[in-house]
Each structure stands twice: as structure tokens, then as C-alpha cells.
């Protein structure tokens, strides 16, 4: 009687954990973004005056992609973190404008939703990767990830100051720019480098996003 045993059944029974992690990452990122999109729309009715701008600001929305990448950094790879960031941002746009269409007076023209959806396809992967880098082991990646998150609030601060003239909101975003590196950095050196890097990031993002892209698209 042969004692040889085939290993095929054992191999076949091993679950595809990587594929399952991918599915979980993408589904949860989109669902979370969808819910946050609805909440930011609702929050506009709660926040007084010009503070309602904070609810659906590009900086606040970018946090969703950053968190998605950070939370999934230990479970999936860089590519999945980028996809999760994209889906989180896209879910925000869909949730925000979907709620406006169903529960409010309608979202109006499709132009604005399509613009923000296009932005989600750029900002989502970028901030998903930034969150992934912040949770990593390389100091350079952590600095760049934190600087990106802090810098987007610096960009909003510039916009509130020079365009909308909302001083309290500008100061609030500036405070976040400073607090993100100080609270989320692991070492004094990392905090200092993240803060210093966030400043040119803020200016560059403002010039590209507000001055170059939105000005040409929206006039």
C-alpha cells in the first residue's frame, strides 16, 4: 500500500486571505466615505454662518483618505491603500451629492459633482498613500505623510485668508497645520521636519489646486 499523500487538498483549502483583505479594504473605505459624505452635507445645516464651509472642505475630505490608508497599512499593501483612499474620497462625493439630490432641493448641475469626483481620483490615492507612509517604519515616509496631511489644512488656511476672508476659519486650519505634526509625529526631529515640510506643501497645493485648476475650471 502506497504511503504517498498528495498535498493538493491541503493547498486548495488555504483561504485567499490577501484577496479577502483587498475586498474588505475597498468595501469598508467606500462605505465609510459614503457615510461621511452624507454627514458633511448634514453638518452644513448644523454649523453656523461661514463655519459650514468647514464641513465639506477639501482638507476635511482628504482626512478620510488618509485615515483609510493608515488603518489598512498593516493589512494590505501600498496599492490597496491608494485604492482605499480613492474609494473613500469618491464615496464622500457620492454621499454628499446623493444626499443633496434625495433629501434637499437637488444637487443642480452635474458639473460640480464631476469636478469633485475628478479631484477625488487624484487626492484620494495621494492621501491614502500618505496615511500608509505615516504608519510605516521609514522616517522619511512618515514625515512626508504627515506633511501632506498638515499641508492640505495650510492650503485651506490660505484660501480662507486671501479669497473668502474668513479669519476664524483660517486660524482654525492653521492650528490644525501645527497640531498634526506635533501630535502625530513620533520624535522631536520628525515633528520639526513634518512642520517645516508642510509649509511649502501648503503653498504649492494652493497654487496648483486653487489658482491653476479651480480658477480655470470654475472661473
Structure description:
With 219 residues, the protein is mainly alpha-helical. The chain has 2 domains: 19-136, no CATH class; 139-219. Helix content is 81%, strand content 0%. The chain has helices at 8-12, 17-46, 52-55, 58-71, 78-103, 111-134, 139-164, 167-184, 188-218. Helix 4 packs across helix 5 and helix 6 (111-134) runs antiparallel to helix 7. The longest helix has 31 residues, at 188-218. The model is unreliable at 1-15 (pLDDT under 50).
What layout of secondary structure does this protein have?
Layout: H1 8-12, H2 17-46, H3 52-55, H4 58-71, H5 78-103, H6 111-134, H7 139-164, H8 167-184, H9 188-218
Helix pairs in contact: 2-4, 2-5, 4-5, 4-6, 4-7, 5-6, 6-7, 7-8, 7-9, 8-9
